[in-house]
């Protein structure tokens, strides 16, 4: 009998991520991951006692990916960068985006907790947002998130005109962010 192959935890997570990327989070199963690795299910169960544990690790990988996309923007305007990273994620990982954003699931609970507060902290570094309280920044973030998710849904589902490219998306994000911030400043009596 041939010896059983051994796989690192990271290799198993990567295989599960590849399944989620093409078929969605609900498609991850121990059997499918084993097939992807060309293995029996035994090596997967050595590292993960159940599929939900593996899915949580895949979600952590998605959060890392989101952070990476965000860090690649680095325009000096974190508020803008958040929107651009979201559009990129929707375009490059459309199945995952639709799976996580357009379906009710427990995965987004941890995403919101992990990412939401960190993103508002990043917004504090944006000179355009100086003078707003934490609560006001949360409201601004939520308004922009509603717009950005809507635009990202259109990107992920191919619902935008062909001429709508990333540059046009950035223009839309900038214009909408300016509108939201200007309105918030006016409402606060800052301008």
Automatic annotation (TrEMBL):
Annotated GO MF terms: DNA binding
* Annotated region of DNA binding: 29-48
Q: Which Gene3D superfamilies match?
A: Tetracycline Repressor, domain 2 (1.10.357.10)
The organism's superkingdom is given as Bacteria
Which InterPro entries does the annotation name?
Homeodomain-like_sf (IPR009057), HTH_TetR (IPR001647)
Q: Which UniProt keywords apply?
A: DNA-binding
Report the residue ranges that make up the HTH tetR-type domain in this protein.
6-66
Q: What is this protein called?
A: TetR/AcrR family transcriptional regulator
Species of origin: Lederbergia citri
Traced from the root, the source organism's taxonomic lineage reads: Bacteria, Bacillati, Bacillota, Bacilli, Bacillales
């Amino acid at each position: 009998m041939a010896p059983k192959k051994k796989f690192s935890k990271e290799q198993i997570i990567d295989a599960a991520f590849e399944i989620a990327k093409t078929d969605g989070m609900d498609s991850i199963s121990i059997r499918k991951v084993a097939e992807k690795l060309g293995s029996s299910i035994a090596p997967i169960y050595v590292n993960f006692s159940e599929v939900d544990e593996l899915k949580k690790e895949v979600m952590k990988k998605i959060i890392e990916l989101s952070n990476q996309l965000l860090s690649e923007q680095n325009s000096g305007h974190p508020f803008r960068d958040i929107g651009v990273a979201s559009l990129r994620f929707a375009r490059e990982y459309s199945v995952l985006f639709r799976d996580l954003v357009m379906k009710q699931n427990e995965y987004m609970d941890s995403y919101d907790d992990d990412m939401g507060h960190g993103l508002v902290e990043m917004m504090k570094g944006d000179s355009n947002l100086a003078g707003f309280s934490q609560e006001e920044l949360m409201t601004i973030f939520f308004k922009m998130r509603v717009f950005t998710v809507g635009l990202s849904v259109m990107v992920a589902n191919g619902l935008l005109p062909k001429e709508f490219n990333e540059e046009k998306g950035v223009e839309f994000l900038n214009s909408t962010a300016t509108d939201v911030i200007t309105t918030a400043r006016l409402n606060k009596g800052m301008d």
